[in-house]
What does this fold into?
Amino acid sequence: MKKDLISLLDVRDDIFDLLSLASELKNERQRNGRQLQGQTLAMIFEKSSTRTRVSFETGMFQLGGNTIYLSQHDSQLGRGETVADTARVLSRYVDGIVYRAFEHQNMLDLAKHSTVPVINALDNLEHPCQVMADLLTIMERKKVLEGLKLAYIGDGNNVCNSLALGAALVGMDFVAATPKEYSPSTPIMEKAVSIARTKGRTSECVIDPNVAARDADILYTDTWVSMGQEREAKRKEEVMRPYQINKAIMSLTKKDSLFMHCLPAHRGHEVTDEVIDGKHSVVFDQAENRLHAQKAILIKLMG
Ligand code: CP
Ligand code: NVA
It folds into this structure.
């Protein structure tokens, strides 16, 4: 049966294997692997991207395969062909599909009607590939993942949702501090809480960013205004202001804590220059690790 990566839950049994494979691929610095020779990956992007697009294209090239990038304007999706028909057609040509979508339901429809693996390159609910790279980054710095405290502060968005699941799956304590109206997805948090509980860990939502930051091993934030929310920008920026990651809030975390951000960052909004350019910051390692983590995902799903 074909395997998809729509939610981090899809790799709940393989997460540590994927992280070790990613780490091997990174250490080997293997640029000319042949694991996916002759395979083609279609990449449908409804939203902008720098990291995800370039790391998938480069990763596929390094594995001996090929990619076809389809923006909203290039394919018939933009003119009303259904996601289901697009999935059926692309499955006749390519060996895998990477999809960056607005609606999570479209992601599910594409996966349902495709006979080749579908990888979620971000939708409004989750960003699983990002979190695989984040876990790899944390593992490199901290050696073990179990028992760490990951605090996410800001908007309870797609990245926050995937982080909650990722943290629970690897046995970290997770806390999200967000304004009440911008808390993470309730069904996802319920899932994260129940997985965390089986490992003797916690996963929770709070309002006060200082409570979340206290003694955290990792402080993570993301943009206050995700792609597609531009109309809400003014209001969100007002409400989010107390959630900015600055020197004061970083001082509540552990001495050797990491600052993380999936990027792109909005400097002076969710994070100050001082923090993102400071000694705790690992944001460019995260960005690099997109390449290694996604190569592992591609091999696992398409190899
Ligand atoms: N972090 C991330 O997914 O970045 P892009 O939007 O540039 O792909
Ligand atoms: N939450 C952000 C992540 C960008 C990589 C967004 O969805 O726009």
Observations:
- DSSP finds twelve helices and nine strands in the chain.
